Amino acid sequence: MTKYFVACFFFGFSMFFTSCKQSDSSIEIACKSDAFSNTTNAKKPFDFLPTATANQIIVHDTYTLSYVEKFEQAEWVAYELKKSDMSTANFKRPFFIEDTKVKTRSADWRNYKKSGYDKGHLCPAGDRKFSKKAFDETFLTSNISPQKHDFNDGVWNRLEQKVRYWASKYDGVYVITGGVLEAGLLTIGKEEVAVPKYFYKVLLDDSRGEFKMIGFLVPADDSDRPLYEFVVSVDEIERRTGINFFPKLDDKIEKRLEKSSDYKNWSFN
């Protein structure tokens, strides 16, 4: 596995915007260069970024996101989490700041003030403790979404910890996460930041020489239910979000993995 989705960034970013195609309903973006590739074998690089429904792909040092101005948040944040990233470092939490790379400006943190919602990380700060710079980068407002505190500190936190467990056990997983952004959502603040009713995570692992995939769709309320009860097919998450996850997988492998909600290949102990 490459260490991050942004490997070879300085070459790939210059190529990125030449690879967009527009459909009737949205702008679908897929990176065509090797900048976001995982070389699973010497002959065939693997590009693991999802498609996007808006034309704002933001590349940071340790994660990539797709920002949707209409909802004032990212529809997905994508990154790789490896065993070597695991750290118990105790960095001081910085203030949340706007993401200057978002051309339409990411939502101001003050939208969350007295809203009753946490500034919920999409790429968790706990996944980026291997350096202070990486940790601080997760405190950009493009990387947050409104979450109830009991959800953020409860079932969602349990899922984030489980992802770290798998990253350690399998020596790395690819993680794509976000809120389900849809019409009619409650909003907060002057900039009308949308409050998702569901959040998802899609994980991909190839540590044993073949791919396995799992998807979670979690209602944005606290729950004591075991995590495996939130497992759904990735196809279902794609239907809900309009996002195509891992479009560069071989079609036969992609179809087989994305239609399954079987979690037996993932350890829930």
What does this structure look like?
By secondary structure, this protein is α+β, with helices and mostly antiparallel strands. Helices cover 18% and strands 25% of the residues. The chain is built from six helices and 15 strands. It has helices at 9-16, 132-137, 149-152, 155-169, 234-241, 251-258, and strands spanning 20-22, 27-29, 37-39, 45-47, 57-59, 64-68, 73-81, 118-121, 144-147, 173-179, 187-188, 193-194, 198-205, 212-219, 231-232. Strands 5-6-7-10-13-14-15 form a seven-stranded antiparallel beta sheet. The radius of gyration is 17 Å and the shape is globular. The two termini are 25 Å apart. 41% of the residues are buried. Residues 1-45 have low confidence and may be disordered.
Topology:
Elements: H1 9-16, E1 20-22, E2 27-29, E3 37-39, E4 45-47, E5 57-59, E6 64-68, E7 73-81, E8 118-121, H2 132-137, E9 144-147, H3 149-152, H4 155-169, E10 173-179, E11 187-188, E12 193-194, E13 198-205, E14 212-219, E15 231-232, H5 234-241, H6 251-258
